[in-house]
């Protein structure tokens, strides 16, 4: 029985992780969880799964929970709470499904406590990929991707990766505005942006998908997860989201992972690895019905966030930290009606161009740059 800690239990990945645990009660047991503000759902989850540790966003929420829950359930809050839930001594594996770079310190705490990590929280790898991967190597823990593209690559990689892999090809749906020109993006609404054609996901990643910053973050995520140079990572538009990504080998062979768009597949695989389990209620891929798959080169002037992410990744140091923090603030501002859709890449670019790069940043440098960037973008917004 694998004991699981889960950060972000009330979110899109979090709830699907619980679906997997519910469907495989002989394989997995939830021992700790954290959520943010969604008390109603969070409390329901605690009653159903009976974890020993629970963490919430604020002290007020924690105080309320302590009254409601039996005394044997430990309740924490804030960043310390995330760390307690992530590194809980009884767990074997952390599924990090929290949104944003707030996931960094809990991930490091779990690694130091010897837990394998199923990582959905890509912002952590973008902001501090060199530190997370170095720590995972040092403590001998597995960093298993949950992001669908990276799970696909993980499943297609074998042999002598350093010598035999030519490149990774990440597929991108193009998001909710994939068929619109740059000019047509003027005045698009939040509701339109949240209407992803293939995936039902949390709000932030759905907007990232529409700007294609999501693919940019995924390029940086792939660089760290698979230790590849940026020259070895390509992005291809594939509007059906049936091929989840590909690996090209030096003999020209291309291995791809295909399936219907269902995040329970990569979540479950990260948890059961190296075994595969039945996916209860999973839809079978019927290529005869799909008929045709489409592929296209992304236009980097149209998808400016993807270009900014490639550039920040190649510059390295604290550039990806700035890219990520500025994007988190700008997306939140768009979601709250404070800036237009096209303001997102504008503010990210502005933050990047005014930043003095720190070349090999420590954890402390990253935390400081993350805070400074958020503050700076807030002042632009004001
Ligand atoms: N959704 C998807 O299909 C995919 C998601 N990912 C990645 O997985 C991560 C999660 O995405 P998704 O599930 O869509 O996001 P959601 O917004 O649906 O869920 C986020 C979760 O994190 C919690 N949370 C948010 N902020 C904080 C905070 N400051 N402290 C503690 N908890 C917090 C939320 O709590 P609450 O709601 O209670 O406030 C919620 O449980 C992201 O990094 C995303 O990029 C990657 C691939 C696919
Ligand atoms: C499901 C998943 O992994 C998302 O990151 C998804 O890839 C978003 O789709 P696009 O970014 O390709 O639109
Ligand atoms: Mn993805």
Automatic annotation (TrEMBL):
The entry's keywords: Isoprene biosynthesis, Magnesium, Manganese, Metal-binding, NADP, Oxidoreductase
List of residues binding Mn(2+): 147, 149, 218
Reaction it catalyzes: 2-C-methyl-D-erythritol 4-phosphate + NADP(+) = 1-deoxy-D-xylulose 5-phosphate + NADPH + H(+)
Binding-site positions, 1-deoxy-D-xylulose 5-phosphate: 122, 148-149, 173, 196, 209, 214-215, 218
EC number, as in UniProt: 1.1.1.267
Highest taxon in the source lineage: Bacteria
Domain DXP reductoisomerase C-terminal: 258-375
Known pathway: Isoprenoid biosynthesis; isopentenyl diphosphate biosynthesis via DXP pathway; isopentenyl diphosphate from 1-deoxy-D-xylulose 5-phosphate: step 1/6
Domain 1-deoxy-D-xylulose 5-phosphate reductoisomerase C-terminal residues, every copy: 143-226
Cofactor names: Mg(2+); Mn(2+)
SUPFAM superfamilies in the record: 1-deoxy-D-xylulose-5-phosphate reductoisomerase, C-terminal domain, Glyceraldehyde-3-phosphate dehydrogenase-like, C-terminal domain, NAD(P)-binding Rossmann-fold domains
Ranges for domain 1-deoxy-D-xylulose 5-phosphate reductoisomerase N-terminal: 4-129
Residues annotated to bind NADPH: 10-13, 36-38, 121, 123, 202
GO MF: 1-deoxy-D-xylulose-5-phosphate reductoisomerase activity
UniProt cross-references to InterPro entries, sorted A to Z: DXP_reductoisomerase, DXP_reductoisomerase_C, DXP_reductoisomerase_N, DXPR_C, DXPR_C_sf, NAD(P)-bd_dom_sf
Function comment: Catalyzes the NADPH-dependent rearrangement and reduction of 1-deoxy-D-xylulose-5-phosphate (DXP) to 2-C-methyl-D-erythritol 4-phosphate (MEP).
UniProt-listed PANTHER family: 1-DEOXY-D-XYLULOSE 5-PHOSPHATE REDUCTOISOMERASE (PTHR30525), 1-DEOXY-D-XYLULOSE 5-PHOSPHATE REDUCTOISOMERASE, CHLOROPLASTIC (PTHR30525:SF0)
Protein family (similarity comment): Belongs to the DXR family.
Descriptive protein name: 1-deoxy-D-xylulose 5-phosphate reductoisomerase
């Amino acid at each position: 029985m694998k004991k699981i800690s889960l950060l972000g239990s009330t979110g899109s990945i979090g709830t699907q992780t619980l679906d997997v645990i519910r469907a495989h009660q002989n394989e997995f047991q939830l021992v700790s969880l954290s959520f943010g503000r969604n008390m109603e759902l969070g409390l329901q989850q605690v009653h159903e799964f009976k974890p020993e540790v629970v963490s919430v966003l604020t002290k007020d929420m924690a105080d309320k929970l302590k009254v409601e829950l039996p005394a044997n359930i430990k309740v924490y809050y804030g960043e310390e709470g995330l760390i307690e839930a992530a590194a809980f001594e009884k767990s074997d594996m952390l599924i990090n499904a929290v949104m944003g770079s707030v996931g960094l310190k809990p991930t490091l705490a779990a690694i130091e406590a010897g837990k394998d990590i199923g990582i959905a929280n890509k912002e952590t790898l973008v902001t501090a990929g060199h530190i997370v991967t170095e720590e995972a190597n040092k403590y001998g823990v597995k960093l298993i991707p949950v992001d669908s593209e990276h799970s696909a690559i993980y499943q297609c990689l074998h042999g002598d990766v350093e010598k035999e892999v030519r490149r990774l090809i990440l597929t991108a749906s193009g998001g909710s505005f994939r068929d619109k020109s740059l000019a047509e993006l003027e005045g698009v609404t939040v509701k339109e942006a949240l209407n992803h054609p293939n995936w039902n996901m949390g709000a932030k990643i759905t907007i990232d998908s529409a700007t294609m910053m999501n693919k940019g973050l995924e390029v940086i995520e792939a660089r760290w997860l698979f230790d590849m140079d940026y020259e070895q990572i390509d992005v291809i538009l594939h509007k059906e989201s049936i091929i989840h990504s590909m690996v090209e080998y030096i003999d020209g062979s291309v291995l791809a992972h295909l399936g219907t768009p269902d995040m329970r597949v990569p979540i479950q695989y990260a948890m059961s690895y190296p075994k595969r389990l039945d996916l209860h209620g999973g839809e079978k891929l019927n290529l005869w019905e799909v008929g045709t798959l489409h592929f296209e080169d992304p236009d980097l002037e149209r998808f400016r966030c993807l270009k900014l992410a490639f550039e920040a990744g190649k510059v390295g140091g604290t550039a990806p930290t700035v890219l990520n923090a500025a994007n988190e603030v700008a997306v939140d501002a768009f979601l709250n009606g404070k800036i237009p859709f096209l303001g997102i890449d504008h503010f990210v670019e502005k933050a990047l161009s005014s930043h003095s790069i720190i070349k090999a940043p420590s954890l402390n440098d990253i935390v400081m740059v993350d805070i400074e960037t958020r503050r700076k973008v807030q002042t632009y917004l004001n």
